[in-house]
Design brief:
alpha+beta; five-stranded mixed beta sheet; two-stranded antiparallel ribbon; disordered N terminus
Length: 149
Amino acid sequence: MKKNILLTLSLLLVFVLSACGASTPAATEPAQPSQAESVSADALFQIVKADGSKFDVTLDAVKTLPLAQLTVEGKVQEGPKLLDILALADITDFSEITITGSSAPSTLTREQVDENTILDFSNRGTMKLATTYIPKAEWTKDITEITVK
């Protein structure tokens, strides 16, 4: 009898303690999605349009685009034109874009987003900016977002 009571109390204690350890968001604080949750798993990066809406750029979509070549500092860079990538998100009219990633962000005017500006694949499977308008050392690497104004 004592063993049954002790076993019951032990189980009850474990249940109560496990319930106390579980944390739930307060009812007044809605859970906010993290950056990783807002981008689809197969997206290379995201385009944030001028109206605030977002478009995920996937590898499959990028593979459908024609490749362009650009020679900078004696090295050939190859990838789709930035204009073609923006067209995936139905963006044709803009004043500037800002590209962010693992290195310093780059801002380009509409006039700089032409045949001399491409996105090149890195050896890590990410994309990097390649352009004649910004020194190579300042190109944004491992692009995570392109913000359009």
